[in-house]
Design a protein that fits this description.
Chain lengths: ~270, ~270
DNA sequence: CCAGCCGAAGTCATCAGATGACTCCATGCT
DNA sequence: AGCATGGAGTCATCTGATGACTTCGGCTGG
């Protein structure tokens, strides 16, 4: 039967041991890269894609799911599957989730990535900034300086930096900086003994950034951002032993039988090597 | 119908309209974040995970596939599913694939991301560089200067920058820079009228980078990297109308393809620290 | 004529069962 | 000791069926 299988593709079968799911994922990626599927466009229904790619529905769904995790596709229940807008921010959304599970030693490296990125964003923002951005920054900073609630201060601090990065006009830059900033925000540094000093210095750093942007001085903005983040990093390294890890849900306790999670069924000695 | 769903689990159901696959993915992520599953450790078999997470095997596999796309898990046929080493480079591997489908307008923005990153990497490399790195850079540059084959020059240029970034000692920084560099390499600028001038300037830029690193001068290294990349960017914008878009396979015939992961069975060379 | 209800079609989401392919390890033989 | 072989464990894939959701058109009532 094979229904309307006029495709002479029975010859190509599965090229060179390529797995079905990878085959499907590569096919979909190729269709997008080739422009056959434009951003925002709806994909054919699952049965048709299965026929076109030569895989079962299960394999196709796994392929779609993996591309969706990377921000390339979006499935909406009952409506269809669509190519995303392919904006850099969407691509990085999935990566943001993975940052939350990075071990700490890998995490500290991220500061050396975030710092130059925010400095670049500050410089670009200073070069392009308009009045409204400056006004917005001043307003956020004013509320930040007045607030006494720690959670609120955290949120406002993120908003300040996020606003500045968006003002750079570079979406990829802003999105990437947001991702890297997210993990650091889980930490709390306000329990430190020099809390007042830290807060004062942080506010001064923000003021310096605002002034540099208002003066349209990219070099000063970059320097101010670098200094501000370096100082923040020092404090974090000193006073942030553990994040308040409560963002992720607990997993079901497993109703009965089966060995407990503690004892892993892994004969492998562990860290190996 | 729900078939034999008399289980009293109707209460826990799906926490707040959460879909089965998302439930499973979040559960797995939580298990990793919580340390219940350590990097490199094998996961329980699919049937047991299904029971623990309360989803069918199909849904679980979709969840695993999505986390695998983000570099958090790795499935090996016949062996099992394992938590990855959780190195930043692995997390970014998936993102690299998405860069290939970014539309051009979003692509040009990436230069403003890549430039400060490579500058930072050059500065760190200069601060930490040892003799062997300098020797390696000189050797690559020597071959690069001598080569006349365009493809080879492309490869050597990538190797030069990649070596420099790795010398920074920051894995995340190097991996991210590699990802951003990959897409630009599809372009060919050697058809330009000033090809000879471009080549000479590029070689000089590399020499300046080597000298700065050899002199252990981070500021000079960062400046050299910024200058080199800025110049490259100008030429690319001027002479690179279209990439030779043949990197991705066709969907219909597709007799074979390059192995996507390369060959990385799960090295996890060491805890590193 | 317009607003709102409603039902049918299309689509994704999930479940269940069965089979094949591959890896790993231990056994037994040479 | 070295190597072939077998079994157990695990993932990969296919098939079929059912539920849930969205969307859009027509119908009804005002």
């Amino acid at each position: 039967m094979e229904s309307s299988d006029d495709f002479g593709w029975s010859r190509s079968e599965r090229g060179g041991g390529m797995a079905a799911t990878d085959e499907a994922a590569n096919g979909l990626r190729a269709m997008i890269a080739k422009g056959e599927l434009a951003p925002g466009q709806q994909l054919p229904a699952e049965p048709e894609l299965c026929a076109r790619l030569g895989v079962s529905r299960g394999s196709l769904r796994e392929a779609v799911r993996s591309l969706a995790a990377l921000g390339m596709l979006e499935s909406r229940h009952g409506a269809g599957t669509f190519v995303s807008a392919l904006r850099p921010g969407q691509m990085l959304a999935g990566f943001a989730a993975t940052v939350d599970v990075l071990p700490l030693d890998g995490l500290l490296e991220l500061f050396d990535v975030r710092r130059p990125l925010e400095a670049q964003a500050a410089a670009l923002a200073a070069a392009r900034a308009d009045e409204r951005v400056v006004a917005r920054l001043r307003e956020v900073q004013k509320r930040l300086a007045r607030s006494e609630d720690e959670a609120e201060r955290h949120a406002l601090d993120r908003e300040f930096h996020s606003t500045l990065c968006e003002a750079s006009g570079n979406e990829a830059l802003a999105a990437l900086a947001d991702v890297l900033r997210a993990r650091g925000s889980h930490y709390s540094i306000y329990g430190a003994p020099e809390a007042d000093t830290i807060r004062l210095a942080s506010d001064l750093g923000h003021e310096a950034l605002i002034n540099a942007v208002a003066a349209r001085d990219p070099a000063a903005a970059a320097a101010a951002a670098t200094a501000h983040l370096s100082q923040t990093e020092v404090w974090l390294r000193r006073y942030a032993p553990l994040p308040d890890d409560g963002a992720l849900p607990d997993v079901a306790p497993l109703p009965d039988d089966a060995p407990p999670p503690g004892g892993d069924p892994l004969p492998d000695g562990g860290p190996a090597r």
